[in-house]
Structures are given as C-alpha cells and as structure tokens.
Amino acid sequence: MALETMPDGPVVENPAMDKGPDFTQRAHAALIDPGLRRNFRRAMDGLMEKRAAQFADPVAWAALRERGAQARAAALARLPDLLEELEARCAANGIQVHWAETIEDGNAIVLGILNHHRARQVVKGKSMVSEEMHLNDHLAAHGITAIESDLGEYIIQLAGELPSHIVMPCIHKNKDQIATLLAANIPGLGYTEDVAALTAAARRILRDRFAAADAGISGVNFAVAETGTLVLIENEGNGRLSTTLPPLHIAITGIEKVVERLDDIPPLLALLPRSATGQPITTYVNMITSPRKPGEKDGPAAVHLILLDNGRSRVFADAQLRDTLRCIRCGACINHCPVYARVGGHSYGSVYPGPIGKILTPQIAGLDVAGDLPHASTLCNACVEVCPVKIPIADILVRLRQEAAQPAGAATPAVKGAGSRRHIAEALVWTVWRWVYAWPWLHHRATRLLARIGNWIPARAPLLRAWTRNRTRPHFAGQTLHERARRAGIDHE
Amino acid sequence: MSQPSRPSRPETVYFFGTCLIDLFYPQAGLAGMELLRREGLRVVFPQNQSCCAQPARNSGYLDEARAVARRQIETFVEDWPIVVPSGSCAGMMRTHYPALFEGQPDAERARAFAGRVVELTWFLVHVLDIRLADKGEPVTVTWHASCHAMREMGVRDEPKQLLRQLSGVTLVEAGHETECCGFGGTFAVRHAEIAAAMVDDKVTSIARTGASAVISGDCGCLMNITGAIDKAGRPIVGRHIAEFLLERCHGA
Lengths: 493, 252
Ligand code: SF4
Known about the structure:
The complex is a heterodimer.
Chain A: H1 23-31, H2 34-54, H3 58-77, H4 79-93, E1 95-100, H5 103-116, E2 121-124, H6 128-133, H7 135-141, E3 145-148, H8 151-159, H9 175-185, H10 195-212, E4 215-218, E5 222-224, E6 229-234, H11 238-244, E7 248-254, E8 258-259, H12 265-277, E9 284-288, E10 302-308, H13 312-317, H14 332-335, H15 338-343, H16 354-365, H17 367-370, H18 382-386, H19 393-405, H20 424-438, H21 440-453, H22 462-467, H23 481-487
Parallel strand pairs in A: 1-10, 2-3, 2-4, 4-7, 5-8, 7-10
Antiparallel strand pairs in A: 5-6, 6-9
Helix pairs in contact in A: 2-12, 3-12, 16-19, 20-21
Chain B: E1 12-15, H1 19-23, H2 26-38, E2 42-44, H3 54-59, H4 62-75, E3 82-84, H5 87-100, H6 107-115, E4 117-119, H7 120-127, E5 139-144, H8 147-151, H9 158-164, E6 169-171, H10 187-190, H11 192-208, E7 213-216, H12 219-231, E8 237-240, H13 241-250
Parallel strand pairs in B: 1-2, 1-3, 3-4, 5-6, 5-7, 7-8
Helix pairs in contact in B: 2-13, 5-6, 7-9, 11-12
The structure holds iron/sulfur cluster.
C-alpha cells in the first residue's frame, strides 16, 4: 500500500528536512514494497515508450532540442532584464506582479490578496511552485479552503499525500487504490475501477467547486517577457476553468520561468508535452495576457502574478549551476531515472523528485539539509540524454558532491551548506588514493601487493560487506595487467 | 559526446588498461591488446599509467582527480590514439578531462589528450574494420550496454556488430538492455540497497534471455552483474567483450 510508504506527516523540503527520515531510510521503505515498485516500473516503462515514439527522428529531435535549450539559456542570460520587462508588460496589461523572496513571503502575498478580495473558497490548477510553498497548508491555517482541481492532485489531496511526480502526482497509486480512495470520499460513488465513471464522479464534485470558488490559483509554464503573456498547458480543462471562472486569478511561478519572446513558445511547447507524457500537444494551451476587458464575457476581474525566488537567485549567480534553471518541468528525467523507478517519488523528501530534484532541492534547501541527494545517482546519464533543454544534470550532480565535500570556510559559498558533508575519513581515503595512483613507483608496489593479498581482505570490511549483500566478492587476479603486459613483452614506450 | 570521424589507420596505438582490469581482469586487457596486434598494429602499454581518475572526480574530489589525470596526460605523450577497453574510463578521459582542466596551465594538453581517446570496440569497427572468424562452439549470449559507452562515447551498436560477426554466436537482447546495472562506482556501496535492486532486475532480464553468457565492454558493470549472478547461483558467465572475441577467434 502506497500510504504505508509515507513517513509520518508531510515531508517538506524547506523547513528542516533533516528532522525526518533521510533518503536512504525512505528509499528502504519503498524498496520493500513490491506493489509500489511494480506501479512505478509499469508507469515509467509506458512513459519512456511513448516519449521515444514522439522523437523517433534523431535529427529532428536534436534540432528541436537545440532550439529549446537555446531559448531557455538565452532567457537566463538576460534574466534580470527580462523580469523587469515582464513586470512592465504585465502591469501595462492589467496583471499585477508581486515578488516573493522566500516561501513565507509568497504565502503571505497570496493570503493578502485573498483576504483583500474576501475570498474563502479557492480552486487550484496544478502548480508545483505552490507545492514548494506548501501553500494549501498555509491557507488552511488561515481558514481558506483550497481544493486541487487537477485530477491527480485532487487524489493526493484526498489521500493527504505529497505528489510523487511533478507531472503525474499520483503515479505511485494503481487503479484499485484510487478507486478505493474515491469511493470513500465521494458521496454516492461505490467502488468502481471504471476510469470514465471515476472521472465523471470527480468532475461532478469539482464542477460545484469551480462554480462556488472566490478565486483560482494556478501555476505558469512560461511567462513571455515580450508580451506579458502567461502560458499554461494542461489536459483536463481544469486549468482553464480555474483561471477564467472565478473573479480572481492568482498565478504563481518561479522567477526562472520567463522567456524572451512569443517566438520561443512553439519550440518549447513542441518539447514539453512530448517529453512529459509522449503527447504531441496538450488538450488545452492557455495564454493569459490580461484580466477581463470591458465587453468580454468571461475571465477574472483581477489577475495577479507572483514570482517566487526561494533560492533561485543564488542558483542563477553561478555560471555552471545556472543551467539548473533552464528546466521546463517536463519530468522526462524522472521517467527515465533507474533510481526513481526503484524508490519512487516520496523517497526524495521534496516536491521535486528524481534527477531534477537531486540537483534543484540541494541548491534551494541547502546541502546541509539535502546533501545526500546528489549521491543518489549512478551518473548513468539517462536523464541527460532525454532532457529537452540539455541540462547537464550529471555534471551538476558532481559539482554538488564537490561543494558538499569541500573544506568549509568560503565566505560566500556558491551553494548553501557547502562543506557540510565533509568527512575526514573520506577525504583521507582520497588523499591516499591520489598518492597511490599519481606516483608510479608507489602504484606498482601497492597494486602488486593488492593483487596478491586482496582476496584475503576480511569479508566484514565495511565496503566489502555492503558489496557482498547480494553479490559475491570481486576476485583479485594475483598479478596485475602491468605485470602481465611486461612479462608478455608488450612495448611500454 | 562523439568520437572522431574515422581517423586513418595508425601504425601504433597506446593501450589504457584501466584500474579495474589491472587488478581484477588482466586477461581482458591482454585480450584487448592481442586483438589490436592481430590486426598488425604496434601496441604500447605505458607502465606508468594507472587510473582515469573517474572515481575521485565522481565523488567530487577534483584536486585528487586532477593529480591522477595529470599523470596519465604526462604518460601518454606520443600523438597516438589511446585505445580504452572501457566506455566509462574512455568517457571520463574524452568528455570530462577538458572541463576538469579548464583554467589550469595544462588545459590545452588535457584537451589534446582527450581528443586521442577512443573506445576499443569503436576502434575495432570504425578504424580497423575488423573481420572476425568464429572458431567456437555454438553459444547464445546477451549484451549489457554500459551507460557511459552509450551516452558519453556514443558507442551503441559497435559491440553488437562485432558479436554478430561471430557465426556460432546467437545474440539475444535482454529487456531494459540500456538501463543502468546499478554499479555507479561508490554508488554500489553508498546506496547498496538501491544498487542491489537495480542489479537484481538486471540479472533477471539477462536470465530471461536464456543466454549462457553476458558480454560487456566495461569491467565495472561486469563485476557488479557477475557478482549478483554468482550470488544468485545462476549458470551464466560474464565476459569482457575483448576476451570473448579473442576466445572465439582462437576456437577456445
Ligand atoms: S531537468 Fe530536463 S528532463 Fe528534467 S524536468 Fe527539467 S527539463 Fe525536464
């Protein structure tokens, strides 16, 4: 049962993730749950296949991807200017822009706007940034009910869980788990696995909520600086309803989501849904440029845009780490990650799981809090191969490992918590390794010795014990290749 | 990412043995050199070589990695191709040395060195255009693709092309062939439980092919996979591709 894989209480990334179980413990809980592993494997296999079918032509894929990566990189290269341009454009169009440096600021701004409009009932379209802010909890604490209208988000809200995937939040659940959950929560709905019936029941409930809502809150996929347009894609129409039906719309996004021109949108939209779910295009593409204008029949009277920083400026400040911010949140890296497929989304202790979470969360929350995540990778590069905006995820993982293990003390470290994971024993091992492998004289002697006595290293030695839990021990050859090459008379210069 | 576009056939090549082959699989290294010698090349194995430095680099110990990488750069001085019987070590030297030495006084040397690094099977196929005559008994094998061979060196079909040249060998593809085996260097011990889940799945897909041998071009993967196979008591052997090809051509 997926519920049992969750540690007690919500796992949140920003306030003190270190108090809960760590990645290894959470991963253990997932690994011993065969049902959960099956759910993930099946879902990921399907997603990989669908994506591959969309990018069957490698030349077209390479060209499109180059275009997407360039659009994102160009936007980041001019980020401060573009944000100003975006703000000015939005303001001219009647969209009010707010800057939130921290998640507390963001939550306070949302609450302030809702209170100003006396809004008590809120419907939400899908927004990962609002998850990052734990906005629902904050609103609930102030007497405001926010109901998720994306079906997947609605399901995990009912279950009291966090999303396990950035695109498909309840991917860890199978059909009967969802059927049981909905039957228990929707009056008049008995247990059924019929997807059409389940969707219809959820839609019935949500329709009433849309009609009664005082405000809609949504995310943003891209914010176009040139025109002040908020682009929002979705498949269920809930995003369109959330942003058009209630009298107030609040859009929340990270500062990195800006792009330069409207021209950048087509290639990015050609990449995003195909990478995410293997769809050529989403059912809905919403482009919001202003509140309702005089004479228009629908649309909210007021639109607000909240731009959250929450550590992104610091990521932006480092030339290498900046590439992290190119992300368009397609989730392809997650779908192709062999570690994610085994441990599932909740193991990461963050709303951003998988490879993107492994590079983003430690930078936002700090290496002192999430410094174990960059090591939860074999650096197999499966993510790098599919990322539609060419983020060098593996290189950033290595950089974060380096930042975590370096001697602490830099006045302004590039990453929060740099140096916090330095272990003297580990540093010593690498020092010794360096001397052995950089000095031929020592190397010859050490490896000759090891080749001869290595097989007698006690099985209880720490690394060997971890290795042999499900493998036999490696067999030292007795003589090194160096020795055998010399004896075979192979030229050495 | 990409290998050099078909360089002309050299007279002499360097052979980089890798630290895992040095200690655990010297026969694979000897076989790799023999395959090259059989094609009429002079093979040079510098005795001062040691390790590509990937273990330290991947752990974030860049100074240590640079010191060891620098030793390789200073050792392989002649302008000969450096043939590597491992996609992972080749990937380290070819794709990561330039970044590792960026801003260092020897950056230019590191770039030139990186440009000479080639993966063994790629070299056999594209430079030597090797023809293999199989003398072995009929056998069914499967292939394990190494992540770095594929995704850093662009070596995907070359090893399989070589295996398909062997008339007595039936190659059966395993499910999830391109998925990581869970080795990942220190990952295998740092995240032992996840690594175990990954390699167990890998072994299951290999066993499903019915093959009696799994062939790979990387000894890290091989050590991981055969360790798990042996622990599970399955009757499947693991072989480095160089050793396997040479065995077949000798009729062993
Ligand atoms: S890192 Fe790349 S693949 Fe992963 S979610 Fe972001 S854009 Fe998609």
